[in-house]
Design goal:
The protein is built from seven helices and no strands. 72% of the residues lie in helices and 0% in strands. The chain is mainly alpha-helical.
């Protein structure tokens, strides 16, 4: 961090505590659990407001180093999910190619990763954005 981020910044605290919380829950993270989150959390107004607030904060210049960490955090979640469910990844890719819905599949995959960074089971975002 090279001292460019203050530890009392709520975005830093959110990332720090959410990464730790997700690590403690990795054994319970599965495709089926993420699928259920995708069905229910997008409809939850609190999750939507929290993600919107986080996105606005990430756009601020002083949070640029944290945005980089957040992007890597989401990328690692994607790697984790595809490693844990490698057969499913190939099935989804084949399905996406079959119906030519690759952009839809990518968007849902991005949404799944974003929800993992905000869902109460794997994140502390609600504690920082009320």
């Amino acid at each position: 961090m090279q001292g460019s981020v203050k530890s009392d910044n709520w975005v830093f605290q959110y990332l720090d505590s959410s990464i730790a919380k997700l690590i403690s829950q990795l054994s319970t993270v599965s495709f089926w659990r993420v699928l259920s989150m995708m069905l229910f959390y997008p409809r939850n107004p609190r999750t939507k407001v929290g993600l919107e607030h986080l996105a606005r904060e990430m756009e601020k210049p002083h949070n640029a180093p944290l945005l980089k960490i957040y992007i890597h955090y989401m990328a690692e979640l994607g790697f984790f999910l595809t490693k844990r469910h490698s057969v499913l990844r190939y099935a989804l890719l084949s399905f996406g190619q079959l119906i030519r819905a690759q952009s839809w599949t990518r968007e849902k995959y991005r949404q799944a990763k974003a929800l993992l960074t905000a869902a109460p089971e794997t994140s502390t975002l609600a504690e920082f954005c009320s």
